[in-house]
Structures are given as C-alpha cells and as structure tokens.
Amino acid sequence: MSRPVIEVRGVTKAYGELPVLRGIDLEVREHEAVALIGASGSGKSTLLRCIDLLDEIDDGDVLVDGEVITDPAVQPHGVRKRLGMVFQAFNLFPHLTVLDNVTLAPRRAHGVPKAEAETRARELLARFGLAGREEAYPDRLSGGQQQRVAIVRALAPSPRALLLDEVTSALDPELVGEVLEAVRELKAEGITMLITTHEMGFAREVADEVCFLHEGLIVERGDPERIFTEPEHPETRRFLRRLLEAKRI
Amino acid sequence: MSAIDQSPSDRRAVRAAARRRRERRGFLIAAGSSVVVIGGLALLILTSPGWPDVRETFFSWEAFRTSFPDVLRGFWLDVKLFLIVEAIVLVLGLAIALGRTTRSPALFPVRLLLSVYTDVMRGVPTILLVYLIGFGIPALALDGLPSDPVVLGGAALALAYSAYVAEVYRAGLESVHPSQRAAALAVGLNRVQSLRFVILPQAVRRVVPPLLNDFISLQKDVALISVLGPLEAFRVAQIEASSNFNYTPLIAAAMLYICVTVPLARFVDRMQARRRKAQSAEAVTA
C-alpha cells in the first residue's frame, strides 16, 4: 500500500449554526481515484474546498503528503500549488486566452520560464483535444471545451493530486461525455484524484473507492461495484433508489 | 381564393412593400416634427425683442476674431492641466480603491481614513475645494509647499476626482465574481498575484466607460481653477468680455470645450455599445 497523498482526519465545518461536515475521515492514495457521492447539500463540495484551503475547517486536520496543511502557520498558496482544483462552473479567466489561462500559474506561482510553460501547455492542450484553440478566449468555447481547458489548467503545474468538483454538472447533456473522457485520461495516467460527482456510472467505472456522504458524514464507503450493487446503509440504498427512479443510473 | 394562389415570393414582395411604406411614413413624420420644433424655437429666439442686442453682444464675428487666439492659448493650459491631473487621478484613485478593499486588519486605520476621505472629497463642492486649497495652502506660509495657483488648483481637482474615480474602481473590483478569486487562489497564486493578474484586469476593463465619463467632467471642471487667477480659457474669455462689454469670447471658450468633450462622449458611447455587444455574445455562449 502506498502512503496517502491526501488525508482527512475528523474534519468538521459549520456555516454559522449549520453543520456541513460532521467528522470526515478519508484517505486518497497515490494514483488512486476516490469518488464522493451524495445528495446536494451533503457536504461534498465543501470538503473539496476545505482541502484546497478555500474554506476554513473548524476541527480536525487535513494532510498532504503527511504534512498538516490546516495548521494556521502553513502558507495557503504553498499548499494550493501542490493541489489542482477543477470547479463545476469552470471558472476560467475570461480576460485571458486559453494558453494564458493554462500558463498563468506555472509562470507566476512556480516561476517556470514563459517558453517552457507554453510548450507544456500546448502539449497538454493537444492531448485533451484542444489543439488550435490556444489563442481563443474562453467565451468562444463550448462548455465541454471550457471544462477541458480548466482540467488542463489544473494539471499544468503537475500537482500532487486533483480535486474535481462536479465537473460535469454545469454542462449540457451532450457535452458531458467529452469531459468524462478527459477524466478517464487522467485516471489512465495515474493522476491521484478526489472527485465529487452526480454521474454514478462514471464513479463506478473510474473510482477505486466510492464514499457516500449523508448530512456531513461518510456513512458508507468501499469498492464501487459493491456500493452500487449491494449498498449496506439504508441512506445509501434510499439515495441510489431515488436516482434509479429518476433514471439517472 | 386568389390570396391562397399567391406564391410565397409574392407574399414576400407584398410584405416588403408594406414595410417600406411604414418606414417612409416614419421618416416623413420625424422630419416634419423636427422642422416644426427646431424652426419654432429658432423663430421664438430670432423674433424676441432682445435678439438684435444678444446677437451683437454674444455672437459678434469681430469680437470672436480678435479674442479667439488668446482664448485658444488659455485653452491650451486647460488641456495640459487636464492631462496631468487625469494621470494623477487614475493612479491615486486606484490606490485609494485598493486600500479600501484590502481586508488586512493592520490596515483598518487606512481603510477608515480612506472612507472618510472619499466621503469628504465627494461631499464638498469642487469649486469650494479649489478655493480652500488655492487660498488656504499659501496662507500657511510653509516652506516647500507650492504657491503656484495652477499647481494648487490642479491638486484640488486631483483630490476631488480621485475620490470619484476610486469609487468607480471599487465598484469594478467588487463586480468581479468571487469564483474568479477562488480560481486564482486554487491555481496557486498568492493574494497579491490574484489581484494583479486576475481580479484587477477584469475590474478595469469593466469600468473603462464610467472612467471616461469622469474624464469628460474633469475636462470641463479644469475651468474651475480660474477662480484662483490662472489665465485659462474661461478666465481669458471673462477678462476679454468685461473689457469690451461683449460676451462673444465666452462663446468661443464654450466652443473649445465642446470640441474636446463631444468627441470624448461619442467615444464613450461607442465603447459602451461595444461592451454591450460583447456581453450579449457572452450570454449567448454561456
């Protein structure tokens, strides 16, 4: 067993009086993909934002490569340089071209020379089917293309792990496939990933472990096949049954 | 029966003809009403009992010809002052806006002072500010402080306008969606880098039209320094007018201001239209 890249220990978080995370324990090992599933509001996205230090946790610890990153003394941007995040709504920088979106962080945060950063960016863009779009502005791209640019942008600085937050939820149905294909490619390359998703078939296919979140707790976790075929916890069963009824599986 | 037999291209021709008739009628009505309104106003003025006197004192070609070179020389001072003050205002306004949007607790007193500053500078009539600084600073009789009325007047304008422009910048900074900051931080930029490479460029792009609007008012308001004595266009015109009992030089000065502000205003309109078009394109693709 390789050591965990991301480790979450007893993390709690509340927005005011409202508890969002109520004691989360989680490990993501090198080259592993862990999928977080659960209803909207179950705390999946909050957990990802807390790991990337975009939100502050109340209690517990998050570790990256064994280092406690939630210690107040730790520089947040130093941590974020080691993690990549892809957002539901893409959040590309609208005033920058595709190429500049991808090279901004390598150049400014990692000090990579411009030419080198651009060479790598072009390579990555080509690999994700975006060759020829380097000089385009994000608003000229389809949602699927934008999300693939966002994936390349997160990948460009070679992070230790990627956090993918509902990366297909804002897409038109016919564009979901191309983004899922991009994530499959990441998995095939052995990128360590923590994924929140509503695409159950995809979670089942790509994840090494599936965690079901319910009201801020991981109530069930395990092998994807087992979770989807023989769920043990009543809340997992209810969640999957509702998805079945809505023909979302 | 015959209507049904008509081919689609016939119907199309009928519709096009109807549309042309509508357009022609609209054009004729617009032209007619313009002639009536503008002609009526002209008639009202030209037939007024005082018109011959007004024409002589405000629109004398002779007075215009003799005063214009001096007024133009004065206007050159206005233009120079405008350009210098504008450059200062752009930098100072941005600095104030950034100071007001920082969240660092150590800078709390700075934020407090800046918010008082913007309130006071925007709350006092600009002409009053020009007076207070133009006459107040020399009265202190301190060494090293400027006493040139052009410099003091320019400083007063820079103080007043930087407060307005700071608020414009601030509105721009706050209009950038928080998700952009999150994305900038998530790729590993620190706070300053996020501001510089992601937030600020978007904010500034959005506020260019309102900033240009403030330029237009500043271009006119440089005339306010005339109360301190410098020979700028309005002041020169005033002197000429009172020495010859003819107000034509004031008209000459007004024309010069218009020559700069109207093209600027059209430029702003064009930019805003372009921005609207760009935004609707964004909305379509989003």
Automatic annotation (TrEMBL), chain A:
<dbReference type="InterPro" id="IPR027417">
    <property type="entry name" value="P-loop_NTPase"/>
</dbReference>
<keyword id="KW-0547">Nucleotide-binding</keyword>
<dbReference type="Pfam" id="PF00005">
    <property type="entry name" value="ABC_tran"/>
</dbReference>
<keyword id="KW-1003">Cell membrane</keyword>
<keyword id="KW-0029">Amino-acid transport</keyword>
<dbReference type="GO" id="GO:0005886">
    <property type="term" value="C:plasma membrane"/>
</dbReference>
<dbReference type="InterPro" id="IPR003593">
    <property type="entry name" value="AAA+_ATPase"/>
</dbReference>
<dbReference type="GO" id="GO:0015424">
    <property type="term" value="F:ABC-type amino acid transporter activity"/>
</dbReference>
<keyword id="KW-0472">Membrane</keyword>
<comment type="similarity">
    <text>Belongs to the ABC transporter superfamily.</text>
</comment>
<dbReference type="InterPro" id="IPR050086">
    <property type="entry name" value="MetN_ABC_transporter-like"/>
</dbReference>
<dbReference type="InterPro" id="IPR030679">
    <property type="entry name" value="ABC_ATPase_HisP-typ"/>
</dbReference>
<dbReference type="InterPro" id="IPR017871">
    <property type="entry name" value="ABC_transporter-like_CS"/>
</dbReference>
<protein>
    <submittedName>
        <fullName>Polar amino acid transport system ATP-binding protein</fullName>
    </submittedName>
</protein>
<keyword id="KW-0067">ATP-binding</keyword>
<dbReference type="GO" id="GO:0005524">
    <property type="term" value="F:ATP binding"/>
</dbReference>
<dbReference type="InterPro" id="IPR003439">
    <property type="entry name" value="ABC_transporter-like_ATP-bd"/>
</dbReference>
<feature type="domain" description="ABC transporter">
    <location>
        <begin position="6"/>
        <end position="240"/>
    </location>
</feature>
<keyword id="KW-0813">Transport</keyword>
<dbReference type="GO" id="GO:0016887">
    <property type="term" value="F:ATP hydrolysis activity"/>
</dbReference>
Automatic annotation (TrEMBL), chain B:
<keyword id="KW-0472">Membrane</keyword>
<feature type="transmembrane region" description="Helical">
    <location>
        <begin position="250"/>
        <end position="268"/>
    </location>
</feature>
<comment type="similarity">
    <text>Belongs to the binding-protein-dependent transport system permease family. HisMQ subfamily.</text>
</comment>
<keyword id="KW-1133">Transmembrane helix</keyword>
<keyword id="KW-1003">Cell membrane</keyword>
<keyword id="KW-0029">Amino-acid transport</keyword>
<feature type="transmembrane region" description="Helical">
    <location>
        <begin position="81"/>
        <end position="99"/>
    </location>
</feature>
<dbReference type="InterPro" id="IPR043429">
    <property type="entry name" value="ArtM/GltK/GlnP/TcyL/YhdX-like"/>
</dbReference>
<protein>
    <submittedName>
        <fullName>Polar amino acid transport system permease protein</fullName>
    </submittedName>
</protein>
<dbReference type="Pfam" id="PF00528">
    <property type="entry name" value="BPD_transp_1"/>
</dbReference>
<dbReference type="InterPro" id="IPR010065">
    <property type="entry name" value="AA_ABC_transptr_permease_3TM"/>
</dbReference>
<dbReference type="GO" id="GO:0022857">
    <property type="term" value="F:transmembrane transporter activity"/>
</dbReference>
<dbReference type="GO" id="GO:0006865">
    <property type="term" value="P:amino acid transport"/>
</dbReference>
<dbReference type="GO" id="GO:0043190">
    <property type="term" value="C:ATP-binding cassette (ABC) transporter complex"/>
</dbReference>
<dbReference type="InterPro" id="IPR035906">
    <property type="entry name" value="MetI-like_sf"/>
</dbReference>
<dbReference type="InterPro" id="IPR000515">
    <property type="entry name" value="MetI-like"/>
</dbReference>
<feature type="transmembrane region" description="Helical">
    <location>
        <begin position="27"/>
        <end position="46"/>
    </location>
</feature>
<feature type="domain" description="ABC transmembrane type-1">
    <location>
        <begin position="75"/>
        <end position="268"/>
    </location>
</feature>
<keyword id="KW-0812">Transmembrane</keyword>
<keyword id="KW-0813">Transport</keyword>
<feature type="transmembrane region" description="Helical">
    <location>
        <begin position="120"/>
        <end position="142"/>
    </location>
</feature>
